[in-house]
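Many introductory courses stop at the sequence. We go one step further.
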Amino acid sequence: MVIFYFSGTGNSKYIADLFGKNMKADSFSIEENLDFESLINAHETIAFCYPIYASRVPKIMRDFVQKYMQLLKNKKLIIFCTQVIFSGDGARAFTYLFPRNFLQSAQIIYAEHFLMPSNIFPVTTNPVKIKKYFDKSVLKMQKVCKNIKHKKVVKRGFNPLSRVLGLIQPPFLRALERKANNSIKTTSNCTNCGLCISACPMNNLKLEGSKITHNHNCTVCYRCVNLCPKKAITVAVHSKISKQYRGII
């Protein structure tokens, strides 16, 4: 098997790498320049991992699945999502990317949610709290992999109540991607260092003259916001940046 992941600031990468280590499976970021067609064709079981925001799979992962959808037919699928508190149907949301009849050929053999530190708001910066999240994820992944090895099927987020919880996420969060696509700003602190441009997984940012502009193609990973050395860029919400999440400590 193989696992493909998208990670904004490290949480989903950590989960994907844990899975790879426990299952002796290769772990690849979908941002890498790889022959994904060959990788998918070479494996019977394909796992995916991504952060979930209000029951919505990140745009970059949606685009990836759309591109390789036909190759996923007749595959066994494992779905992991990382979340802050709860998403309701965060793992099931992955199945919404496919036509209704598609899952008659592909088989979901496992789906699970992992609680991880927040990289948006409220941002988690306390080292003790961050370590607790990661320590718990290690134990949970060990259990998950044990279940998979014993062919125990778990589908977190697939029951009707989970779907309702997904639908009642705060309206602001549900509209976050639309707002992010149209509202990225920098402050006077910006030094045009270009870190946000090179870090953006969507090639959404560019420098025009002395100003950072965008192409209305944000995947809401908040990588630019959390990595900016001057705390000078904001996405969708333009309050002053006081904390940044830099991933596992």
